[in-house]
């Protein structure tokens, strides 16, 4: 199970548009797909995530507070039911279908699905949507292309909130997910004690700040390409940005 991607025999709960992941697992498809197709390709549809009262599974034990087990139908083995976690009475289930529909709603269908996957036996899921217009720096020279993603990540075991975040990392596993979570991009969190249906506009507003930043970054970067400078001038800019000039050498 490289980097926590859920696998069964030669199958994996992961799908990627055009570019294989480093772990070489899952399904790689050539053309943009619908939300339902993405879920199916990543073996993330039809899990039927549901609650079962803990009292019913442990005869003779009465829990002091409402306690529920989160179950799903295994996507690979017909008839197998998996226990994903134990949660309290205020917990709301966010199915994979609801998470992906939420991604569609906040982007108004203007982004395409890039990656999706299940981690740690289905207890955590992620997806990324990519902007259809990349940031292209110095388009008349050797272009640098910066991809802009919206990442969605949630858990089914009660341990983490649902997070929607603007990132530059193409998430394909637990390792790249950790990198993306550490980025400074705009993000919005929805607790599992809340409902997603009321959070669409709030999320759009939060992520809208990132669009303003992208536009400003694009303009500044393009202006740098239009200016000429020697090595000394370049070093001066770097030192100013990193504030190294004001720091004493380490050997003093």
Structure report:
With 252 residues, this protein is α+β, with helices and mostly antiparallel strands. 28% of the residues lie in helices and 28% in strands. A hairpin with a 4-residue loop joins strand 8 (111-119) and strand 9. The longest helix has 27 residues, at 200-226. It is elongated, with a radius of gyration of 22 Å. The N and C termini lie far apart (49 Å).
List descriptors:
three-stranded antiparallel sheet; 28% helix; 252 residues; alpha+beta; 6 helices; elongated; seven-stranded mixed sheet; 14 strands
Task: Describe the secondary-structure layout.
Elements: E1 7-8, E2 11-12, E3 14-17, E4 27-29, H1 35-41, E5 50-53, H2 54-57, E6 67-73, E7 81-88, H3 96-107, E8 111-119, E9 124-131, E10 135-137, E11 144-146, E12 149-155, E13 162-167, H4 174-181, E14 187-190, H5 200-226, H6 231-242
Parallel strand pairs: 3-4
Antiparallel strand pairs: 1-2, 3-8, 5-6, 6-7, 8-9, 9-12, 10-11, 12-13, 13-14
Helix pairs in contact: 3-5
């Amino acid at each position: 199970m490289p980097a926590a991607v859920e696998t069964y025999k030669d199958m994996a709960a992961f799908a990627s548009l055009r570019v294989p992941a480093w772990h070489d697992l899952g399904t790689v498809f050539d053309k943009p797909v619908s939300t339902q197709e993405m879920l199916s390709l990543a073996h993330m549809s039809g899990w039927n995530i549901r609650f079962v009262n803990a009292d019913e599974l442990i005869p003779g034990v009465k829990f002091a507070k409402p306690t529920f087990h989160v179950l799903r139908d295994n996507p690979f083995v017909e008839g197998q039911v998996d226990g994903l976690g134990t949660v309290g009475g205020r917990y709301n289930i966010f199915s994979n279908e609801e998470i992906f529909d939420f991604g569609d709603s906040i982007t108004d269908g203007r982004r395409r699905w890039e990656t999706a996957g299940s981690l740690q036996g289905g207890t955590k899921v992620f997806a990324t949507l990519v902007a259809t217009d990349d940031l292209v720096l110095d388009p008349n020279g050797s272009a640098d292309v910066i991809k802009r993603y919206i990442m969605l990540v949630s858990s089914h075991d009660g341990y983490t909130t649902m997070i929607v975040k603007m990132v530059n990392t193409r998430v394909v596993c637990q390792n790249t997910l950790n990198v993306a979570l550490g980025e400074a991009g705009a993000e919005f969190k929805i607790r599992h004690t809340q409902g997603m249906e009321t959070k669409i506009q709030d999320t759009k507003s939060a992520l809208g700040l990132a669009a303003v930043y992208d536009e400003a970054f694009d303009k500044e970067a393009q202006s740098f390409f239009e200016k000429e400078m020697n090595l000394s001038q370049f070093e001066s800019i770097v030192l100013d940005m990193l504030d190294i000039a004001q720091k004493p050498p380490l050997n003093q």
